Task: structure prediction
Amino acid sequence: MKILVINAGSSSLKFQLIDMDDESVKAKGLVERIGIEGTHFKQTVGDKVIKFTRNMADHTEAITAVLEALTDKENGAIASLDEIGACGHRVLHGGETFKQSALVTEESLKAIEDLIPLGPLHQRPNIAGIKACQAVMPGKPNVAVFDTAFHQTMPPKAFLYAVPYAYYTDYKVRRYGFHGTSHRFIAGETPKYLGKDPKDCKFIICHLGNGSSLSAIVGGKVVDTSMGLTPLEGVVMGTRSGDVDPAVLEYIMDNTGMDIHEMLNTLNKKSGFAGLSVSSDMRDVKAAAAKGDAQAQTAVDIWTYRLQKYIGAYMAAVQGADAIVFTAGIGENDTEACADVIAGFAWMGIKIDPARNVRGACGIISTDDSTVKVLRIPTNEELPIARDTLEIVSRL
Ligand code: AMP
Result:
C-alpha cells in the first residue's frame, strides 16, 4: 500500500508518497506561499522534477495540485489515485485526548478541533490539510498522527507546572512536548545500535534543528521532554528563546508598549539565534563567529551551555543514561557542535571519537571507553506517520 503523508502548515504543505511494501519514498514535495500571491510548487520523483508557480488560494487547491503532480503521466509517481491507500497527517496537538494516532472520523475530527486553542497557528492548518484530503479524495481514509502523543507517558512530576492546580484541571495547562514523531523514530532506532532490548535502554535524545527539543527515554517511553505547553519552552533554538523567566515578559512589555501577542511573537520568532546574533541558522552564526564576531560566538556558547544543562538534568531523569543521541539539522550535520556539547561531560568520562564523529556517519560516534555512548542517527519524521497510518487502516 502507498501512503500519502501530509504536513500542512499555515502557508505551506510538505508531502511524501511512501510505498509501505519497502518503506521507500516514491515522491516528495513542498507547496509554499499557499493563500499568498505566487504559490510555489515542487515535486521530486527520483530525478524527475515538477516545479511551477501558480496562485493557490487554500489547502484544497494545494492538495489538488499535489494529486495532479503525483499522477502526471510524464513526471508523476503513480498511474492513478487508486494507488494511494490512505493519507497520514501530522497534527500538532493531541492534548490529553490522543495518546496515540487516530483514524479521522467525525468524532475524532471534532476532538482535534476542540484542541485548536492549545496551538492555533499549527492546529488550524493541520485540520485544513485533513479537510482538503476529505474533499478531494472522498472515501479515502485519513489518519491523524500527533506531535504530542509520544510524550503522553510522562509522569505528573514531569508534566505539571508548579502553578495553581486548577489551571491544569480547568484549562489543561501542562507540559505536552512536541517533535513526537522524531523522538519516537529515534527511540525505536537507538536500541538497535546499542545492541540491547529497548526495555533495558535509558537514553537522551537531542533533536537539534531550527526547532529543538530533548527527550529522556526509559524502556522505550518518554519520562521527560524539554518543550512544554507550547514549543517555546526548553533549549535555545533558531528563533525561539527556550526557557525564560516569565517576569521578563511584563518588564519588556512595560518598557516597549508591546502587547502579549507581540511579546510572544518575539519569543517565538525573533529570539534564539535570530535574537542573539545575525541569523536563525547555526551556519550563519558560526560563520560570523569565525570572522571575529564576539556576540555570535556568545550565541553559540549560550546554545551549547543550555544544552549541556538539559543533558545533565536528563541524566538524573533517566538515572544514568546508556546513550546520548543527536539528530535533526544541527545534530546530523554540525559535528563540531555535537563535540562541543559533549566536551562539557569529559569530567564524567564521556568522549567523542573524532574519527567516528564525521558528517553523514550513522551510529556510535563516541570512543570505545566512553562511559556513555554518543550516537548520531538521522531522523525521519514522515515514516512513523506512514507506519501508523498503515497500521490503523489495516484494521479497518
Ligand atoms: P531542521 O529544522 O532539522 O531542518 O534543521 C535546520 C537547521 O539545521 C538549520 O537552521 C541549520 O541551523 C542547521 N544545519 C543544517 N546543516 C548544517 C550544517 N552543515 N552545519 C550546521 N548547522 C546546520
